[in-house]
Design a protein that fits this description.
The protein has 184 residues and is mostly helical. The protein contains 9 helices and no strands. Helix content is 65%, strand content 0%.
């Protein structure tokens, strides 16, 4: 984590107002409310609207889960968002990615032995992070592998997790118990 204590507190259940309780009830029902959501409980209206978009990216995107997670891990690493990195290491492992594959999100598009698609996904993420634009060469390469909707999902996935990384870093959201660090 960039900050060793939160700027915006992760509210515990006894601090939730009615709006926060309604927002977080689905997480409570699943047995665990992560610190990101406890922090967003400070602004339920914002959280509710953001979660619609976030749900598309995480659960309804046209990208394969592995491709999506590679992008999310890369933008989390580029933004030095330790919370995001750790949460998505867990999700990537659940999706069957090896730690070696996960580490390529740190080492980037020049990592030896990458598939063409992985290299292009990492390159597109780097370009969007650095310049808010995917170069023609990277776009053309991705177009050989991905549909138009998948290309759109690449851009929106990077943007979504860039935004989330900014929020996590700036709010000082602290790691949940058991979250892996950078040393995967």
């Amino acid at each position: 984590m960039r900050l060793d204590k939160p700027r915006i507190p992760a509210l515990e259940a006894d601090e939730w107002d009615d709006d926060a309780q309604e927002l977080l009830q689905p997480f409570v029902a699943r047995g665990r409310v992560l610190n990101i959501f406890k922090t967003l409980a400070n602004h339920p209206d914002l959280a509710r609207r953001w979660m619609v978009f976030a749900n598309h990216i995480l659960g309804k995107s046209k990208l394969a889960v592995r491709e999506r997670e590679l992008i999310i891990l890369r933008i989390g690493y580029l933004c030095q968002a330790g919370y995001e990195w750790g949460q998505h290491v867990l999700i990537a492992r659940e999706a069957g990615m090896t730690d070696e594959e996960i580490r390529t999100a740190r080492t980037g598009p020049d990592t030896p032995g990458l598939s063409d698609l992985d290299r292009l996904l990492l390159q597109a993420t780097d370009e969007l992070h650095a310049d808010a634009h995917v170069s023609d060469g990277t776009w053309e390469g991705l177009s050989d592998h991905l549909s138009r909707q998948q290309l759109m999902d690449v851009v929106f996935t990077v943007g979504q997790y860039n935004l989330v990384s900014m929020a996590l870093n700036s709010f000082g959201v602290q790691a949940d118990e058991g979250l892996p660090g950078w040393d995967v």
